[in-house]
Amino acid sequence: xxxxxxxxxxxxxxxxxxxxxxxxxxxxxxxxxxxxxxxxxxxxxxxxxxxxxxxxxxxxxxxxxxxxxxxxxxxxxxxxxxxxxxxxxxxxxxxxxxxxxxxxxxxxxxxxxxxxxxxxxxxxxxxxxxxxxxxxxxxxxxxxxxxxxxxxxxxxxxxxxxxxxxxxxxxxxxxxxxxxxxxxxxxxxxxxxxxxxxxxxxxxxxxxxxxxxxxxxxxxxxxxxxxxxxxxxxxxxxxxxxxxxxxxxxxxxxxxxxxxxxxxxxxxxxxxxxxxxxxxxxxxxxxxxxxxxxxxxxxxxxxxxxxxxxxxxxxxxxxxxxxxxxxxxxxxxxxxxxxxxxxxxxxxxxxxxxxxxxxxxxxxxxxxxxxxxxxxxxxxxxxxxxxxxxxxxxxxxxxxxxxxxxxxxxxxxxxxxxxxxxxxxxxx
Length: 428
Ligand SMILES: Nc1nc2c(ncn2[C@@H]2O[C@H](COP(=O)(O)OP(=O)(O)OP(=O)(O)O)[C@@H](O)[C@H]2O)c(=O)[nH]1
Ligand SMILES: [Mg+2]
Hints:
Layout: E1 10-16, E2 49-53, H1 61-64, E3 68-70, E4 90-94, E5 98-102, E6 108-112, E7 118-122, E8 153-160, E9 166-169, H2 176-183, E10 201-206, E11 212-217, H3 232-239, E12 244-250, H4 259-273, H5 275-278, E13 282-287, H6 294-304, E14 309-311, H7 320-333, H8 342-348, E15 360-364, E16 367-371, H9 373-381, H10 387-399, H11 402-408, E17 416-419, E18 422-425
Parallel strand pairs: 1-3, 2-4, 9-11, 9-12, 12-13, 13-14, 16-17
Antiparallel strand pairs: 1-8, 2-7, 5-6, 5-8, 10-11, 15-16, 17-18
The protein binds guanosine-5'-triphosphate and magnesium ion.
The site of magnesium ion has 6 residues, from helix 2.
């Protein structure tokens, strides 16, 4: 495996699923049959927009140029009870680890973290029913059909979360990038100033006993990172996904710092960002052991910190071998952790079509204006070509309680009621 370096954080994208095909109003016309029955077929379903993981992709860069993804309309129904064909679904490939949320509300819709994850991010509209569908004893020859349902539309935010087994965490300049460059083919920038690393670097690590895992070199954290200081809080998010934390400490105290205080400071930031982080298995990598103060500092450090501590010299690649083996052991012992608890995840799923309140009525200049997703959807599916189609629509909205509400508001015979661009006179 090679290195994975590119890192595109976030993409905004609009998805519009296909509308359903329209139902058909038609009648049987056969020789010697005086009054043929209804004969109109249903419309086909519109395309769903589906996001599907492709493990060959490692960035969201292809999606950056899409901006808008539109589904196709289902075929209309036709006479002789012919149903329209369903439109083909649109499948968009995304990298593993893509988290999809609603752009406006930030609620998570899908967490595509498995190799074979896929999710319908916008559902295609149902085909409208043809008039055959509405045949009944009381109405043997219905003279109306339904239009197709509108496809779902929404604006999404896609984020690619790092999928790394081990995260290198620590203050700036402690040597995190140097470590990654020694143990993998990744070539992160290394320098003696703070915040050299601005976006996470990933590298595939191979141990001498032929095990492998993915290591992430993360931007340095500083005091206050959990509340947004430095680059911290943006990247603390990514640590949530790593199984094991390798906490890198500058044991040389090169910048006049105390290694133990540094260690405590970083742990505080991890904990205040999320209590989950501090529960992850952690080892300490004591770097810069070539510096004069290192041995003395390490002795003090060991008195206070009772974790596995590995003294190394990253710059000359000394001491890393046992670190990698231990990390591989830890990675194997930790099960995959979901980013969200199951319950939390379900409450994040935005997949609801129905509003709590199907409509609202407002009185504007003596006209009663009815609004609401559900009722507007019914309106768009209704067929106003025939009186029966209109009647059916009025019956549907009556069932929702529109008449009752209008009466409460004091409507009188002959007053105007409006829904979208349709207006009619109210009759009891
Ligand atoms: N003396 C000594 N210097 C080291 C060692 N490892 C790394 N350095 C130096 O420490 C400096 C910072 O190293 P980086 O690897 O860029 O540190 P970092 O933790 O990635 O820093 P940020 O990306 O800014 O958070 C560089 O000048 C390295 O050469 C070491 O074992 N000994
Ligand atoms: Mg770095």
